[in-house]
Amino acid sequence: MEAITQIILSLLGVIGIGGIITAYFNRLKEIEFQKLEQKQKRYKSSLLYMDAYFEPKNIKYLSSRQPDINSPKDVLEYLKAEYHEMLLYASKEVILAVKRFLENPNRANFFASVLAMRKDLWTKKVDVDIEEICIQ
């Protein structure tokens, strides 16, 4: 009888510890998902503003988000603020690509930023290059 009680208590202990371990790993997964979701939102926002820099007529579509943005110069100032936030969460590759864009805003640096963000979010490797994605 005592052996059965010992086995039952052991099983309950294992189940309890297993539950705690499972809960811990589920929480870690949830945190990683939330980080990825936030990066995705911030990167999409940055890309919209970069695009508006090249197409000033599209600035009007951003007015609901940022009513004080009226020119390409305003767009770059907003992107600088976004860049400073990226220092907290973005990969080194994304930070450097966006920095190059801010220092020299051109299509090549835009697409390099896109590819760095893509790699950071999804692919973890380079699966396309700038020449393949540039629109002529």
Radius of gyration (Å) = 23 Å
SSE ordering: HHHHH
Number of domains: 1
Shape: elongated
- Alpha carbon gap, first and last residue: 81 Å
The count of helical stretches stands at: 5
**Major sheet attributes:** none
Low-pLDDT ranges: none
Helical percentage: over 70%
Percent strand equals: under 5%
Computed structural class: mainly alpha
Topology, number of strands: 0
User: On the 0-100 scale, what is the average pLDDT?
Assistant: 83
Please give a structural write-up:
With 136 residues, the chain is mostly helical. The chain has helices at residues 2-54, 72-89, 92-103, 107-123, 130-133. It has one domain (35-133). Helix 1 packs antiparallel against helix 2 and helix 1 (2-54) runs antiparallel to helix 4. The chain is elongated. The N and C termini lie far apart (81 Å). The mean pLDDT is 83.
Jot down its keywords.
136 residues; mainly alpha; elongated
Produce the secondary structure layout.
Blueprint: H1 2-54, H2 72-89, H3 92-103, H4 107-123, H5 130-133
Helix pairs in contact: 1-2, 1-4, 2-3, 3-4
Q: How would you sum up this structure in a few lines?
A:
This protein is mostly helical and 136 residues long.
